[in-house]
Amino acid sequence: MIGLSTYSFFWEHSDRAVEPLSLRGAFEATSALGVGLFQICDFAPLEAMSDRELAEAAATARDLDLDVQLGTKGLEPVHLARYLRLAEAFDARLVRSMVTSPTSSPSPEQTGAWLDEVLPEYQAAGVVLALETYEQVATADLVALVTARGGDHLGICLDPANVVARLEHPRDCVTTAAPHVVNVHVKDFAFARQPGWVGFTYSGAPMGTGMHDYEHLLATVRPRERGIDEVVEHWLPWQGDPETTVRTERAWTRATVEHLRAAREPAAAPAA
Fold it and tell me: Which residues form the signal peptide (predicted)?
């Protein structure tokens, strides 16, 4: 299924917008595009919501016929237990997280111990924990972490754009992670020369215009065949003023959704 996320409305949610978009407003904008999934990802107000506010937000999603997923950072058991309760409030079946967070960079041993503590609770609740590919952890190490535990309730949230910062090639990330992917973050990306030709900027690009070989991802991961959701994000730079930035962000979202709807999974390459 195609989905949007809070990162699809990054600037519109921010305090730099003229009228910051509420979670309900993001749900409604998602529904208006005919999209049936929304991932509430790294959205700070979520953790401050009262039980009543959570119930009202979940009711809005149900009224709009939206499936909900959640996203956070970090693997501390207390934190992930909190997100499991939030997932239950939204009937969410997937929580995306990261090995590292702003407050923790656990050792491999600590990471494994934390996962071993929380995974039985996630499995009992029928919720999948998806660890995102990021520059802080090599994709091969993330795969090893997942495969060491097996099961259907731990997998990888694939975002090949992130790993460029550790000099991994996005295609290599896709190939390595493919068997363990349970969620895909979709955004295009490109390098551009800085003014004066001194260095580069690595940033977002309208879907289909940058360097992301999405056809390779579709052929390798086969998300539609496997029932893996494709969630739209952006790395849109600030466009100089709130109105232009929000207008551009909305245009990128529409264009990405249209690109995904038009895309078809290529046939898998024959074995050598």
Answer: none
- Taking phi first (over 0 means left), then psi (-120 to 50 degrees means alpha), and beta for anything else, what does residue 48 get? alpha
Give the dihedral sign, CA 49/55/60/66. positive
Amino acid at 49: M
Task: Please state whether beta strands 94-97 and 181-186 pair in parallel, antiparallel, or not at all (unpaired).
Answer: unpaired
Q: Give 158's DSSP letter.
A: E
**Predicted local confidence at residue 264, as pLDDT:** 77
Pairing status of strand 188-193 against strand 200-205: antiparallel
Q: Which helix (H) or strand (E) holds 200?
A: strand 200-205
Quick one: 2-262 is in which CATH superfamily?
A: Divalent-metal-dependent TIM barrel enzymes (3.20.20.150)
C-alpha 33, offset from chain centre: 19
pLDDT of residue 3: 98
The predicted model scores a pTM of 0.94
Rounded CA-CA distance 125/135 in Å is 30
List Cα–Cα distances, 213 to 95, 148, 218, 256, 271, in angstroms.
26, 29, 9, 14, 20
Rounded to whole angstroms, how far apart are CA atoms 255 and 184? Answer: 17
Please list the rounded mean pLDDT of every run of 10 residues in the chain (272 residues): 97 93 96 98 94 96 98 97 97 97 92 96 97 97 95 95 96 98 97 89 95 97 98 96 97 97 73 50
Task: Return d(Cα 158, Cα 35) in angstroms, integer.
Answer: 20
Is residue 157 a contact partner of residue 183, using CB atoms and an 8 Å limit? yes
